[in-house]
Design goal:
heterodimer, A: about 260 residues, alpha/beta, Rossmann fold, two-stranded antiparallel sheet, 10 helices, 13 strands, B: about 100 residues, alpha+beta, Arc Repressor Mutant, subunit A, 3 strands
Chain lengths: ~260, ~100
Amino acid sequence: MRVPTGISELDAMLHGGLMRGDVTLLVGCAGTGKTTLALQYLVNGATKFHENGLYITFEHMPAQIYRDAASFGWDIRKLEAEGKLRVVCTSPPVLVQFVESRNPIDAIISEINAKRIVVDSISHLESFIPASELRGELYRLISHLKMKELTSIFTAESHEVLGNQLVVTGVGLSFLVDCIILLRIVEIQSNLKKALTVLKIRGSDHDKQLREFEITPQGIKIAAAFAQYEGVLTGAPRRSFTEEAGRAWAEAFVRKRR
Amino acid sequence: MKETSLHELMEKLMGTEIKAELLRLFHMNPGILDTVEGIARRIGRMPKDVETEISTLVELGVLRTERFGKLDVVSLNTSKDKEIQNRIATLIEGGGKR
């Protein structure tokens, strides 16, 4: 069963949406739109699909979330007042204690009957939890969310702005999650553009194209694939040598020879 | 809460800079659910300076603490906070004494 994000092009790429109860890792460097996409998933859930949601943030203050969301026309305070969405600002050690019985986060999930959850960003756990315990704690957290049948998005920071390296965490988080969506900055003709691709969905096929996207006043808008370029993920793509381009080059070469 | 004047109540609530910062933090961000260390970090203070002030606000009922695994987690007590805000409004309307 699928859980639509409400971003129609992304749902098409995911062949209908995220799989219910799955944990998705949304990876990107600063400024790629991770928080916007994650919030849009929750707002759409609450307003279009009757699925309430919980947003857990470590660094962003709720006041900042309310303000930023308002710029996309999303009234988070109103959704909170209606019991459809809740923003919780906490520290990683508290989130890890989330798995303890009778905890306040579970109480909020029950109170609003949350079906969707966002943790923004999971990378902060690395600063608070010893590396030797991190994978185990993440596994426990993921299992807890799955037992509650929450469809989750974890955002994660990649440190590479451009380039061909992608390191999410040193603990193999990408193996623990079910789905990975990658957001990247790419340079095309001296312009910085944003690119999105679905790297994996466990147990499902998905669109493998690398698509351009923009952050518009209505939220994330995904456009066409970077069809005329190759090596886009390296951050410095080059035009593909297409059949048409090859013919044009050959004709120009022949003309010059004459 | 026993009968107090507006001045006494305001003194208890906002008598120090840190208490005023804490109240502002929780009113602007009612979704905070954090440890004393986490809250101290959010207002740019040291935990030792914030701990006593949080205890005072917990005694007043504006904030509450819950044991959460191995951690004590502080949050805004929204119903009690509303009650105190109403009381302040009543005291202001009544000229400060009630």
